[in-house]
Specification:
The chain is an alpha/beta fold and about 250 residues long. The chain is built from eleven helices and eight strands. Helix 3 packs parallel to helix 11 and helix 4 packs parallel to helix 5. The two termini are about 30 Å apart.
């Protein structure tokens, strides 16, 4: 067994194997100003991962980021949900808040101390995820032993207004990454889970599942919905249907 395989096997199980992953990305302001709504969304059991993100961290946001992380941990604990809580980038905040894991940016893959960072997280039995926008980055993340890889950008999204339609990586990147990683891994059990992100909603998430995603990550289509709880449940139903349909199609090819 290779060291990267051992790293992944020693990490905690990311999510329920029987269903596709639904990750909800939230900002500190969402947590601090929409806490009641977010609490009901978490309690709906539709969400598998709550990921605290901050697009442009500055010193003035550090306190709110810390507060939001600790608040999210309390909310998830209170509801006794099986949802995992992941913090973007900030290892110190993740550890101090009792988060289940840390999500790294793609550029972190090139850091000289990334191996040490992942080792420190492993010692605490924490999950490690990473964003990628290319096959090469996905292979690098795989070799580092991450548990899941967030692949994007799938579709047009306000989160990346600079990306015109011709600049989007799209579902085809998922397929290319899956193919490459299958060639790298000794068994499917040693593959990190692939999570599609970028403009995901109930009308297009099936494209991501068909392209090889194990789940999707969403932002506005849930948290900015008129009824976020119903939106979360709608995404869960759509994901379950997409996974079932995809599994049926795979079986029919045998």
């Amino acid at each position: 067994m290779r060291p990267t395989d051992l790293k992944r096997l020693q990490s905690p199980q990311l999510l329920r194997a029987e269903r596709a992953i639904l990750a909800l990305l939230v900002k500190p302001s969402d947590v601090l100003h929409q806490l009641e709504v977010l609490s009901r969304v978490v309690n709906s059991d539709a969400i598998d991962v709550v990921q605290l993100r901050v697009q442009a961290p500055v010193m003035s946001d550090a306190t709110n980021f810390h507060r939001a992380a600790h608040t999210l941990r309390r909310v998830i604990n209170r509801h006794d949900t099986r949802a995992k809580f992941v913090v973007n980038d900030d290892v110190e905040v993740a550890m101090s808040s009792g988060a289940d894991g840390v999500h790294l940016k793609e550029r972190a893959l090139g850091d000289a101390n990334v191996d040490a960072t992942i080792a420190a997280l492993r010692q605490r039995h924490m999950l490690v995820g990473c964003s990628v926008h290319s096959v090469d980055a996905a292979v690098r993340a795989f070799l580092l032993g991450v548990d899941y890889i967030q692949v994007g950008t799938m579709f047009s999204t306000p989160s990346h207004p600079e990306k015109t339609p011709d600049m989007l990586e799209g579902p085809q990147l998922l397929t290319a990454i899956q193919h490459e990683l299958l060639g790298c891994a000794r068994t499917n059990d040693n593959l990190p889970q692939l999570v599609a992100i970028g403009g995901i909603n109930t009308t297009n998430l099936a494209q991501a599942i068909d392209a090889g995603a194990d789940g999707v990550a969403v932002i506005r289509s849930i948290i900015a919905a008129t009824d976020p709880v119903e939106a979360a449940l709608s995404h869960r139903r759509a994901l379950d249907q997409a996974k079932e349909t995809h599994a049926t199609q795979d079986t029919s090819k045998l």
